[in-house]
Amino acid sequence: MGRGVREIGYMEKMAELLFMILPALLAAAGLTGLGLGAALLMFPDQIGKWGKRLETPFTSERFIYRHNRFFGLFLLAGGAFALLKIGASIAAGYRAHLAGGPVFESLMDASLIFLLLGNLGAMMIGAIVWIRPSHLKGWEIHVNHWVSTRRSPPDQAPLASRIDRHVLVFPRTAGAFFILAGLYLLASATMMNFA
């Protein structure tokens, strides 16, 4: 194709996909903020119980090992589907240049490599979970460590404890802040949808 003919490139499709997903993420964050803010306004004395409940580790390994065929096939099929979609995009020749320049092109290439490696990893783990989940037991020992935010390292403790202390002392103020932030995110998502 000549330079004057505009073709839809891979990076333009990625940017379009990002602008389709971003309002949904903003709306989800806004609704979460509204819900948390309303809960802080209505039940300010329950916040200590919520924190303890959120910090209690929840183990899902037994459930996943019982239903290993379903989860393995789900991971394998999801990774394969995403790889096929990415492969089809590349094969269709979506390598046109965007006005964003070489930095944007490098960012898109890096994200493509990240997606390819991530989907291959998901397919590998899905195959292991599907065929022989006992091979993941060794990995679990190394990667399944619970990190408590209340017992954070000393260099991170001052900021986390100040914010926690403020929310515990002034839960209604924090709730009002979350509601305002949620409304702002919902308004931003709405404006992005209609822009």
From TrEMBL:
Which sequence ranges are marked TM in the entry?
Answer: 20-43, 70-92, 112-131, 169-187
Q: Does the keyword Transmembrane helix apply?
A: yes
Q: Which UniProt keywords apply?
A: Membrane, Transmembrane, Transmembrane helix
Tree of life domain:
Bacteria
Provide the protein name: Uncharacterized protein
Species of the source? Thiohalomonas denitrificans
